[in-house]
Amino acid sequence: MPIVTVLQGPRTPELKRDLVQKVTDAFVDSLGVPAESVQVWIQETPPDSWSVGGTLTADK
Fold it and tell me: What molecular functions are annotated in GO for this chain (predicted)?
């Protein structure tokens, strides 16, 4: 049973639906596992809780 964790900034439900479908399809196509066995967990972090190059992404 593949379990995929996606760490990202907040996205709309529509974008998340598209993402989890494409990730699931990638596992089905590459590993031949049933779609029902693929779990995708999305962990969203607000822009004021992560940084790139020493600057909060909220400050960019």
Answer: isomerase activity
Per-residue pLDDT at 17: 98
Mean pLDDT of 20-48: 98
34 three-state secondary structure = coil
Residues 6+ apart with CB under 8 A from 14: none
Distance (Å, whole) CA 55 – CA 35: 39
Do residues 48 and 58 lie in contact, with contact meaning Cβ atoms separated by under 8 Å? yes
Question: What is the rounded CA–CA span in Å between residue 60 and residue 37?
Answer: 39
Q: Where are the domains of the chain?
A: 3-59
